[in-house]
Amino acid sequence: MSEFQAYLQLGFSHITDSNGYDHILFIMALCTIYTLINWKKVIVLVTAFTVGHSITLALATMGYVAVKPDWIELLIPVTIVITACLNFFYKEPKSTFSQKKQPSSLRYPIALFFGLVHGLGFSNYLKALLGKEAEIFYPLLGFNIGLELGQLVIVLITLSVAFVLIELLRIQRTSWINILSGIIVGMALSLILNNALFETLTSSPAVGSPVN
């Protein structure tokens, strides 16, 4: 297996890993208000996110940008909460097949900006994989393409489930949006609390140790 293929698989595995589900939650939050019928809008939205995380992934991996990992671990679930909360303001159109009303255009710059944050998270993982490796172009390219492929899988699954529930089973779109967004918010808040608790435990002095 070539180096490019190896990093492509690592990128795909990283974004689809259920143990590190923060990126999965964000992509789901982006797509919650859509179904397969809206695939063109989703492509634009996901492209904005891709552009954002590709920029910071490249810059941070090459050493041009440096942000403390602790801040990134906090900011990523914050981006999930904000994105999911925006879904609660979505107003259901009269017909999903003749939808003329566009979702808020604010979603696109938000996806781009939050993509910058997620790219920093991706770069921390990639830099750990690279170690002291001198050549990073092909690993970076393969890893980023792997991320995109995994991202597309998550988008396809989310849109397909929404299509079945809304278009075929006739579940109200607002119910689907509110329930899924509420679950996503809850899971993201638990990530924030877990990170805060971890920081508190690791920053506090050990039991029995002298306090300066």
TrEMBL record:
Q: Which domain of life is it from?
A: Bacteria
Q: Mind listing the UniProt keywords for this protein, alphabetically?
A: Membrane, Transmembrane, Transmembrane helix
Show the InterPro entries listed in the entry: Put_HupE_UreJ
Q: Name one Pfam family in it.
A: HupE_UreJ_2
What sections of the protein cross the membrane? 20-37, 42-65, 71-90, 110-129, 149-169, 176-198
User: Could you confirm whether the keyword Membrane appears in this record?
Assistant: yes
The name this protein carries in UniProt is HupE / UreJ protein
